[in-house]
Design brief:
Layout lengths: L24 E7 L5 E8 L4 H12 L6 E5 L26 E7 L4 E5 L4 E5 L4 E5 L10 E5 L4 E6 L1 E6 L4 E6 L2 H8 L2 E7 L4 E6 L3 E6 L7 E6 L4 E7 L4 E6 L4 E5 L7 E4 L6 E10 L8 E8 L3 E6 L4 E7 L5 E7 L4 E6 L3 E6 L5 E6 L6 E5 L4 E5 L5 E5 L4 E5 L9 E4 L15 H11 L8 E2 L26 E3 L5
Parallel strand pairs: 1-4
Antiparallel strand pairs: 1-2, 3-4, 5-6, 5-32, 6-7, 8-9, 9-10, 10-11, 12-13, 13-14, 14-15, 16-17, 17-18, 18-19, 20-21, 21-22, 22-23, 23-34, 24-25, 25-26, 26-27, 27-33, 28-29, 29-30, 30-31
Length: 481
Protein backbone atom coordinates (compact mmCIF):
# COMPACT_ATOMS: atom_id res chain seq x y z
CA UNK A 1 0.00 0.00 0.00
CA UNK A 2 1.72 3.21 -1.13
CA UNK A 3 1.79 6.53 0.68
CA UNK A 4 1.80 10.05 -0.71
CA UNK A 5 5.17 11.79 -1.01
CA UNK A 6 3.83 15.33 -0.52
CA UNK A 7 4.79 17.53 2.44
CA UNK A 8 3.13 20.67 3.72
CA UNK A 9 3.81 23.59 6.08
CA UNK A 10 7.45 23.78 4.97
CA UNK A 11 8.42 20.45 6.49
CA UNK A 12 11.76 19.16 5.28
CA UNK A 13 10.47 16.20 3.39
CA UNK A 14 11.99 13.10 4.86
CA UNK A 15 8.80 11.16 4.35
CA UNK A 16 9.45 8.21 2.08
CA UNK A 17 7.03 5.67 0.78
CA UNK A 18 6.87 2.97 3.41
CA UNK A 19 5.10 -0.34 3.09
CA UNK A 20 2.76 -0.86 6.03
CA UNK A 21 1.64 -4.29 6.92
CA UNK A 22 -1.49 -3.44 8.86
CA UNK A 23 -1.56 -6.74 10.68
CA UNK A 24 1.98 -6.46 11.97
CA UNK A 25 3.67 -3.03 12.17
CA UNK A 26 3.24 0.71 11.94
CA UNK A 27 5.95 3.12 10.75
CA UNK A 28 6.41 6.40 12.55
CA UNK A 29 8.55 9.43 11.70
CA UNK A 30 9.27 11.97 14.43
CA UNK A 31 9.91 15.64 13.58
CA UNK A 32 10.94 18.53 15.83
CA UNK A 33 9.20 21.90 16.11
CA UNK A 34 11.00 23.22 13.01
CA UNK A 35 9.99 20.24 10.89
CA UNK A 36 13.37 18.48 10.96
CA UNK A 37 13.41 14.71 11.06
CA UNK A 38 14.61 13.40 14.41
CA UNK A 39 14.14 9.68 13.98
CA UNK A 40 12.06 6.97 12.33
CA UNK A 41 10.70 3.93 14.12
CA UNK A 42 8.86 0.76 13.15
CA UNK A 43 6.61 -0.41 15.98
CA UNK A 44 4.46 -3.40 16.60
CA UNK A 45 0.84 -2.64 15.74
CA UNK A 46 -0.11 -3.30 19.36
CA UNK A 47 2.19 -0.52 20.59
CA UNK A 48 0.49 2.35 22.38
CA UNK A 49 1.44 6.02 22.73
CA UNK A 50 3.46 5.23 25.84
CA UNK A 51 5.61 2.78 23.86
CA UNK A 52 6.17 5.40 21.18
CA UNK A 53 7.26 7.94 23.80
CA UNK A 54 9.76 5.48 25.23
CA UNK A 55 11.24 4.94 21.75
CA UNK A 56 11.55 8.71 21.37
CA UNK A 57 13.24 8.92 24.77
CA UNK A 58 15.79 6.29 23.74
CA UNK A 59 16.57 8.14 20.50
CA UNK A 60 16.47 11.79 21.66
CA UNK A 61 16.95 11.67 25.45
CA UNK A 62 13.68 13.54 26.05
CA UNK A 63 11.83 12.16 29.11
CA UNK A 64 8.51 10.61 28.15
CA UNK A 65 6.77 12.60 30.90
CA UNK A 66 7.40 15.95 29.16
CA UNK A 67 6.75 14.90 25.55
CA UNK A 68 3.84 16.40 23.65
CA UNK A 69 3.01 14.66 20.38
CA UNK A 70 0.79 15.93 17.58
CA UNK A 71 -0.10 14.32 14.26
CA UNK A 72 1.13 15.90 10.99
CA UNK A 73 -0.78 13.77 8.47
CA UNK A 74 -3.49 14.75 8.15
CA UNK A 75 -2.35 18.23 9.17
CA UNK A 76 -4.75 18.52 12.07
CA UNK A 77 -2.10 19.30 14.71
CA UNK A 78 -4.41 17.49 17.13
CA UNK A 79 -2.58 16.15 20.19
CA UNK A 80 -1.97 12.42 20.30
CA UNK A 81 -2.85 11.21 23.77
CA UNK A 82 -2.49 7.86 25.45
CA UNK A 83 -5.95 6.32 25.41
CA UNK A 84 -4.76 2.87 26.39
CA UNK A 85 -5.23 1.50 22.88
CA UNK A 86 -2.76 0.71 20.09
CA UNK A 87 -1.51 3.43 17.77
CA UNK A 88 -3.36 1.88 14.83
CA UNK A 89 -6.67 2.17 16.69
CA UNK A 90 -6.07 5.69 17.93
CA UNK A 91 -8.84 8.07 16.72
CA UNK A 92 -6.31 10.29 14.89
CA UNK A 93 -4.31 7.47 13.30
CA UNK A 94 -5.34 5.52 10.24
CA UNK A 95 -3.63 2.71 8.40
CA UNK A 96 -1.00 4.93 6.77
CA UNK A 97 2.44 5.66 8.19
CA UNK A 98 2.28 8.18 10.98
CA UNK A 99 4.15 11.49 10.98
CA UNK A 100 4.42 13.08 14.41
CA UNK A 101 5.66 16.41 15.69
CA UNK A 102 7.51 16.29 19.01
CA UNK A 103 7.19 19.28 21.29
CA UNK A 104 9.29 18.84 24.42
CA UNK A 105 8.29 20.95 27.39
CA UNK A 106 11.25 23.17 28.28
CA UNK A 107 10.37 24.03 31.86
CA UNK A 108 11.52 25.12 34.35
CA UNK A 109 9.86 22.27 36.22
CA UNK A 110 8.40 21.89 39.68
CA UNK A 111 7.04 18.83 41.48
CA UNK A 112 3.77 19.81 43.18
CA UNK A 113 2.21 17.68 45.89
CA UNK A 114 -1.09 17.52 47.75
CA UNK A 115 -2.30 14.84 50.13
CA UNK A 116 -3.65 12.80 47.21
CA UNK A 117 -1.73 13.87 44.11
CA UNK A 118 1.79 14.41 42.79
CA UNK A 119 2.14 16.30 39.52
CA UNK A 120 5.01 17.62 37.39
CA UNK A 121 4.42 21.25 36.36
CA UNK A 122 5.95 23.42 33.64
CA UNK A 123 6.17 26.92 35.12
CA UNK A 124 6.58 28.71 31.81
CA UNK A 125 3.71 26.88 30.11
CA UNK A 126 1.67 27.23 33.33
CA UNK A 127 0.37 23.69 33.13
CA UNK A 128 0.75 20.26 34.61
CA UNK A 129 2.56 17.92 32.24
CA UNK A 130 2.41 14.61 34.08
CA UNK A 131 0.45 13.28 37.05
CA UNK A 132 1.48 10.16 38.95
CA UNK A 133 -1.13 7.44 39.13
CA UNK A 134 -1.26 6.84 42.88
CA UNK A 135 -3.59 4.38 44.56
CA UNK A 136 -6.82 5.98 45.76
CA UNK A 137 -6.16 5.06 49.41
CA UNK A 138 -2.54 6.32 49.43
CA UNK A 139 -2.05 9.56 51.37
CA UNK A 140 1.09 11.49 50.44
CA UNK A 141 2.89 12.70 53.56
CA UNK A 142 6.18 13.79 51.99
CA UNK A 143 8.24 13.57 48.80
CA UNK A 144 11.90 13.74 47.80
CA UNK A 145 13.00 14.50 44.23
CA UNK A 146 16.29 13.57 42.57
CA UNK A 147 16.14 15.76 39.46
CA UNK A 148 19.49 14.67 38.10
CA UNK A 149 18.74 11.02 38.85
CA UNK A 150 15.21 11.50 37.46
CA UNK A 151 13.71 9.75 40.45
CA UNK A 152 10.94 10.68 42.87
CA UNK A 153 10.25 9.18 46.29
CA UNK A 154 6.71 9.38 47.63
CA UNK A 155 6.18 8.46 51.28
CA UNK A 156 3.18 7.76 53.47
CA UNK A 157 2.17 4.22 54.33
CA UNK A 158 5.48 2.92 52.96
CA UNK A 159 7.80 4.25 50.27
CA UNK A 160 7.30 4.39 46.52
CA UNK A 161 10.04 5.30 44.04
CA UNK A 162 8.96 6.64 40.65
CA UNK A 163 10.88 7.03 37.39
CA UNK A 164 10.49 10.62 36.17
CA UNK A 165 11.55 9.62 32.65
CA UNK A 166 8.64 7.26 32.16
CA UNK A 167 6.22 8.31 34.88
CA UNK A 168 6.04 4.69 36.06
CA UNK A 169 6.63 3.28 39.52
CA UNK A 170 10.09 1.80 39.81
CA UNK A 171 9.96 0.32 43.31
CA UNK A 172 7.83 -0.01 46.44
CA UNK A 173 9.48 -0.71 49.78
CA UNK A 174 7.93 -1.13 53.21
CA UNK A 175 4.70 -3.02 53.74
CA UNK A 176 1.43 -2.50 55.56
CA UNK A 177 2.51 -4.67 58.51
CA UNK A 178 5.58 -2.49 59.07
CA UNK A 179 3.49 0.67 58.86
CA UNK A 180 0.69 -0.44 61.18
CA UNK A 181 2.56 -2.48 63.78
CA UNK A 182 5.89 -0.74 64.14
CA UNK A 183 6.24 2.80 62.86
CA UNK A 184 3.01 4.44 61.75
CA UNK A 185 3.00 6.49 58.59
CA UNK A 186 6.12 8.24 57.32
CA UNK A 187 6.02 12.01 57.88
CA UNK A 188 9.41 13.18 56.62
CA UNK A 189 12.31 11.84 54.61
CA UNK A 190 15.94 12.57 53.74
CA UNK A 191 17.57 10.58 50.94
CA UNK A 192 20.98 10.16 49.34
CA UNK A 193 20.19 9.00 45.82
CA UNK A 194 23.74 7.94 44.98
CA UNK A 195 24.21 5.58 47.91
CA UNK A 196 20.51 4.61 47.95
CA UNK A 197 20.22 5.35 51.65
CA UNK A 198 17.41 7.18 53.40
CA UNK A 199 16.19 8.20 56.84
CA UNK A 200 12.50 8.57 57.64
CA UNK A 201 10.57 9.93 60.61
CA UNK A 202 7.14 8.58 61.52
CA UNK A 203 3.89 9.45 63.24
CA UNK A 204 4.93 7.36 66.25
CA UNK A 205 8.20 9.23 66.83
CA UNK A 206 10.49 6.52 65.49
CA UNK A 207 13.28 7.12 62.98
CA UNK A 208 14.28 4.45 60.48
CA UNK A 209 17.24 3.88 58.20
CA UNK A 210 16.56 2.39 54.76
CA UNK A 211 18.75 0.59 52.28
CA UNK A 212 16.88 1.18 49.03
CA UNK A 213 19.03 -1.26 47.08
CA UNK A 214 17.05 -4.12 48.65
CA UNK A 215 13.34 -4.61 49.18
CA UNK A 216 13.46 -5.13 52.92
CA UNK A 217 11.97 -3.54 56.00
CA UNK A 218 14.11 -0.70 57.37
CA UNK A 219 16.31 -0.69 60.43
CA UNK A 220 15.06 1.32 63.42
CA UNK A 221 17.86 3.56 64.69
CA UNK A 222 18.78 4.03 68.33
CA UNK A 223 17.21 7.46 68.86
CA UNK A 224 13.58 8.53 68.69
CA UNK A 225 11.19 11.34 69.60
CA UNK A 226 8.31 11.05 72.03
CA UNK A 227 5.81 12.32 69.43
CA UNK A 228 5.48 12.67 65.66
CA UNK A 229 8.71 13.46 63.76
CA UNK A 230 8.03 16.41 61.46
CA UNK A 231 11.40 17.16 59.83
CA UNK A 232 14.84 15.71 59.11
CA UNK A 233 18.05 17.05 57.62
CA UNK A 234 21.04 14.80 56.90
CA UNK A 235 24.61 15.67 55.97
CA UNK A 236 25.70 12.43 54.31
CA UNK A 237 29.34 13.46 54.03
CA UNK A 238 29.64 14.53 57.68
CA UNK A 239 27.46 11.60 58.82
CA UNK A 240 25.21 13.83 60.93
CA UNK A 241 21.43 13.96 61.32
CA UNK A 242 19.21 16.73 62.70
CA UNK A 243 15.62 15.74 63.54
CA UNK A 244 12.69 17.49 65.24
CA UNK A 245 8.95 17.23 65.72
CA UNK A 246 5.92 17.65 67.94
CA UNK A 247 7.86 17.11 71.17
CA UNK A 248 9.57 20.54 70.61
CA UNK A 249 13.03 18.93 70.84
CA UNK A 250 15.77 18.93 68.21
CA UNK A 251 18.12 15.97 68.19
CA UNK A 252 21.57 15.74 66.58
CA UNK A 253 23.05 12.32 65.96
CA UNK A 254 26.42 11.08 64.70
CA UNK A 255 25.50 8.20 62.37
CA UNK A 256 29.08 7.20 61.58
CA UNK A 257 28.77 4.49 64.25
CA UNK A 258 25.90 2.08 64.86
CA UNK A 259 25.24 3.46 68.34
CA UNK A 260 25.37 7.08 67.19
CA UNK A 261 26.01 9.78 69.79
CA UNK A 262 22.74 11.61 70.43
CA UNK A 263 22.37 15.16 71.79
CA UNK A 264 19.19 17.17 72.41
CA UNK A 265 18.49 20.86 71.84
CA UNK A 266 15.63 22.43 73.79
CA UNK A 267 14.24 25.95 73.65
CA UNK A 268 11.13 25.97 71.48
CA UNK A 269 7.71 26.11 73.15
CA UNK A 270 5.82 24.53 70.26
CA UNK A 271 6.15 21.95 67.53
CA UNK A 272 9.31 22.24 65.45
CA UNK A 273 8.00 22.04 61.88
CA UNK A 274 11.09 22.72 59.77
CA UNK A 275 14.88 22.54 60.10
CA UNK A 276 18.00 23.14 58.05
CA UNK A 277 21.56 22.24 59.06
CA UNK A 278 25.10 22.83 57.86
CA UNK A 279 27.95 20.86 59.35
CA UNK A 280 31.49 22.11 58.72
CA UNK A 281 30.16 25.46 57.48
CA UNK A 282 32.81 28.03 56.59
CA UNK A 283 31.70 31.27 58.24
CA UNK A 284 33.32 34.49 57.02
CA UNK A 285 33.95 35.87 60.52
CA UNK A 286 35.19 32.70 62.19
CA UNK A 287 38.61 31.01 61.82
CA UNK A 288 37.37 27.40 61.70
CA UNK A 289 34.38 25.55 60.21
CA UNK A 290 31.28 25.59 62.41
CA UNK A 291 28.13 23.48 62.76
CA UNK A 292 24.91 25.48 62.43
CA UNK A 293 21.20 24.71 62.40
CA UNK A 294 18.03 26.75 61.92
CA UNK A 295 14.59 25.68 63.13
CA UNK A 296 11.06 27.06 62.74
CA UNK A 297 8.24 26.45 65.19
CA UNK A 298 4.56 26.88 65.95
CA UNK A 299 5.72 29.19 68.80
CA UNK A 300 6.14 31.87 66.04
CA UNK A 301 9.96 31.88 66.26
CA UNK A 302 13.02 30.69 64.42
CA UNK A 303 16.13 29.68 66.33
CA UNK A 304 19.73 29.54 65.19
CA UNK A 305 21.76 26.80 66.89
CA UNK A 306 25.39 25.85 67.40
CA UNK A 307 25.20 22.13 66.63
CA UNK A 308 28.69 21.45 67.95
CA UNK A 309 28.31 23.14 71.33
CA UNK A 310 24.59 22.22 71.40
CA UNK A 311 23.32 25.65 72.36
CA UNK A 312 21.04 28.36 71.06
CA UNK A 313 22.67 31.37 69.39
CA UNK A 314 19.75 33.53 68.26
CA UNK A 315 15.99 33.68 68.48
CA UNK A 316 14.39 35.40 65.50
CA UNK A 317 10.96 36.84 66.23
CA UNK A 318 8.58 38.69 63.96
CA UNK A 319 6.19 36.11 62.55
CA UNK A 320 2.65 36.62 63.83
CA UNK A 321 1.62 33.01 63.22
CA UNK A 322 3.23 29.59 63.28
CA UNK A 323 6.30 29.08 61.09
CA UNK A 324 5.59 26.32 58.58
CA UNK A 325 8.61 26.21 56.26
CA UNK A 326 12.08 27.64 55.76
CA UNK A 327 15.02 27.49 53.37
CA UNK A 328 18.59 28.60 54.14
CA UNK A 329 21.55 29.72 52.07
CA UNK A 330 24.40 28.91 54.43
CA UNK A 331 26.91 30.43 52.01
CA UNK A 332 25.16 33.83 52.10
CA UNK A 333 23.98 33.26 55.70
CA UNK A 334 20.39 34.27 54.89
CA UNK A 335 17.07 32.46 55.17
CA UNK A 336 13.50 32.71 53.93
CA UNK A 337 10.62 31.50 56.10
CA UNK A 338 6.87 31.24 55.57
CA UNK A 339 4.01 31.18 58.06
CA UNK A 340 0.34 30.29 58.48
CA UNK A 341 -0.85 33.86 57.80
CA UNK A 342 0.90 34.08 54.42
CA UNK A 343 3.94 36.09 55.51
CA UNK A 344 7.36 35.49 53.92
CA UNK A 345 10.33 36.85 55.86
CA UNK A 346 13.87 37.19 54.56
CA UNK A 347 16.42 37.01 57.39
CA UNK A 348 20.06 38.00 57.88
CA UNK A 349 21.42 35.25 60.14
CA UNK A 350 24.46 37.29 61.17
CA UNK A 351 22.43 40.04 62.81
CA UNK A 352 19.13 38.22 63.23
CA UNK A 353 17.32 41.05 61.46
CA UNK A 354 14.39 40.58 59.08
CA UNK A 355 15.48 42.34 55.89
CA UNK A 356 12.19 42.00 54.02
CA UNK A 357 8.63 40.96 54.80
CA UNK A 358 6.09 40.32 52.02
CA UNK A 359 2.72 38.63 52.13
CA UNK A 360 0.15 36.76 50.15
CA UNK A 361 -3.52 36.11 50.82
CA UNK A 362 -3.08 32.44 51.75
CA UNK A 363 -1.00 30.42 54.17
CA UNK A 364 2.51 29.42 53.04
CA UNK A 365 2.66 25.66 53.46
CA UNK A 366 5.86 25.02 51.47
CA UNK A 367 8.61 26.95 49.72
CA UNK A 368 11.80 26.49 47.73
CA UNK A 369 14.35 29.20 46.94
CA UNK A 370 17.07 30.01 44.42
CA UNK A 371 19.01 32.61 46.40
CA UNK A 372 21.43 33.36 43.55
CA UNK A 373 18.59 34.21 41.16
CA UNK A 374 16.46 35.94 43.85
CA UNK A 375 13.53 33.64 43.11
CA UNK A 376 11.24 31.66 45.38
CA UNK A 377 8.36 29.31 44.65
CA UNK A 378 5.64 28.85 47.27
CA UNK A 379 2.64 26.56 47.59
CA UNK A 380 -0.52 27.23 49.57
CA UNK A 381 -3.78 25.60 50.68
CA UNK A 382 -5.62 27.85 48.19
CA UNK A 383 -4.21 25.47 45.52
CA UNK A 384 -1.92 28.05 43.96
CA UNK A 385 1.79 28.16 43.15
CA UNK A 386 3.38 31.60 43.31
CA UNK A 387 6.75 32.62 41.86
CA UNK A 388 8.40 35.47 43.78
CA UNK A 389 11.18 37.98 43.32
CA UNK A 390 12.70 37.86 46.80
CA UNK A 391 14.80 40.97 46.25
CA UNK A 392 11.83 43.20 45.40
CA UNK A 393 9.24 41.31 47.39
CA UNK A 394 6.75 40.93 44.54
CA UNK A 395 4.79 37.99 43.20
CA UNK A 396 5.90 37.55 39.57
CA UNK A 397 3.49 34.84 38.55
CA UNK A 398 0.50 33.08 40.08
CA UNK A 399 -0.10 29.75 38.42
CA UNK A 400 -3.56 28.26 37.74
CA UNK A 401 -5.14 26.37 40.56
CA UNK A 402 -3.84 22.92 41.40
CA UNK A 403 -6.49 20.24 41.98
CA UNK A 404 -6.02 20.28 45.78
CA UNK A 405 -4.34 22.31 48.48
CA UNK A 406 -0.56 22.24 47.98
CA UNK A 407 1.47 20.63 50.77
CA UNK A 408 4.93 20.26 49.19
CA UNK A 409 6.79 21.74 46.23
CA UNK A 410 10.23 20.90 44.84
CA UNK A 411 11.80 23.04 42.12
CA UNK A 412 14.46 22.06 39.57
CA UNK A 413 16.32 25.38 39.78
CA UNK A 414 19.47 24.00 38.10
CA UNK A 415 17.70 22.37 35.15
CA UNK A 416 19.12 18.95 36.01
CA UNK A 417 15.99 17.17 34.79
CA UNK A 418 16.83 18.16 31.20
CA UNK A 419 20.47 17.03 31.25
CA UNK A 420 21.22 15.00 28.15
CA UNK A 421 18.38 16.52 26.12
CA UNK A 422 18.61 19.08 23.34
CA UNK A 423 17.37 21.98 25.46
CA UNK A 424 17.37 23.25 29.02
CA UNK A 425 15.03 25.50 31.02
CA UNK A 426 15.02 29.01 29.59
CA UNK A 427 14.83 31.29 32.62
CA UNK A 428 15.40 34.38 30.45
CA UNK A 429 12.38 33.44 28.34
CA UNK A 430 10.29 32.98 31.47
CA UNK A 431 11.37 36.40 32.74
CA UNK A 432 10.50 37.94 29.36
CA UNK A 433 7.08 36.30 29.45
CA UNK A 434 6.48 37.72 32.90
CA UNK A 435 7.61 41.20 31.88
CA UNK A 436 5.55 41.25 28.67
CA UNK A 437 2.36 39.45 29.63
CA UNK A 438 1.92 39.60 33.39
CA UNK A 439 1.21 42.38 35.80
CA UNK A 440 3.20 41.52 38.94
CA UNK A 441 1.07 41.34 42.03
CA UNK A 442 2.31 44.08 44.30
CA UNK A 443 2.65 42.42 47.67
CA UNK A 444 3.12 44.51 50.81
CA UNK A 445 6.84 44.46 51.40
CA UNK A 446 8.36 46.42 54.23
CA UNK A 447 12.02 47.16 54.84
CA UNK A 448 13.38 46.82 58.34
CA UNK A 449 15.60 49.52 59.79
CA UNK A 450 18.32 48.60 62.23
CA UNK A 451 15.97 49.70 65.01
CA UNK A 452 13.38 47.17 63.93
CA UNK A 453 10.71 49.60 62.68
CA UNK A 454 9.20 49.84 59.23
CA UNK A 455 10.70 52.35 56.81
CA UNK A 456 8.24 55.12 56.01
CA UNK A 457 6.03 54.54 59.08
CA UNK A 458 6.00 56.83 62.05
CA UNK A 459 7.30 55.28 65.21
CA UNK A 460 5.28 55.34 68.39
CA UNK A 461 6.22 58.29 70.59
CA UNK A 462 3.59 58.09 73.31
CA UNK A 463 5.27 55.28 75.20
CA UNK A 464 8.96 54.93 74.25
CA UNK A 465 9.29 51.78 76.39
CA UNK A 466 6.51 49.94 74.54
CA UNK A 467 7.30 47.61 71.67
CA UNK A 468 5.30 48.06 68.50
CA UNK A 469 3.81 45.02 66.78
CA UNK A 470 6.39 45.38 64.00
CA UNK A 471 9.45 45.37 66.26
CA UNK A 472 11.90 42.51 65.97
CA UNK A 473 12.53 40.84 69.29
CA UNK A 474 16.06 39.54 69.18
CA UNK A 475 17.84 37.50 71.80
CA UNK A 476 21.47 36.47 71.58
CA UNK A 477 23.61 34.18 73.66
CA UNK A 478 26.68 35.60 75.37
CA UNK A 479 28.85 33.82 72.83
CA UNK A 480 27.40 35.67 69.85
CA UNK A 481 27.73 33.76 66.60
Amino acid sequence: MGASNSCTNGLSCAYEELEVVESAVIDVQIFDEQGRLLCAERLDRRSDVGSLKMKIKQRTGTPATIQKLSQLLPMSEEPIVDLGCSLLHHPQVGSKPLMVRLLAQSGPFAMVTSWKEVELWDLRAEEGVHKLRLEKNFTVQCVAVGWEERRLMVAGAGLQIWDLDTGARAMSVGDQLFTEKHAGEICCIAIDWRSKRAFTGTTKGSIHKWDLSVDEAPEQVTWRHTRRVLCLDVDWAAQRVLSAGQDSVLKTVDISSRDGLERSLEGHNGWVQCVSAAWNHIHSTLPAPVHRGLSGSTDLTLKLWDLEEHKELLTLQGHDSMVQCLTVSWEAYVALSGDLNGSLRYWDLNSGLCLRDFRTSSSISTLTVDFARNRALTGSPDRRLRLWNTEKGVCLRELPRFANGITRVAMDWAGSFLLGTSKGPDWDALDRDIAENAQPEACPMREWTQRGSWDGLAEEEEDPTALSENTILLTRSNDGL
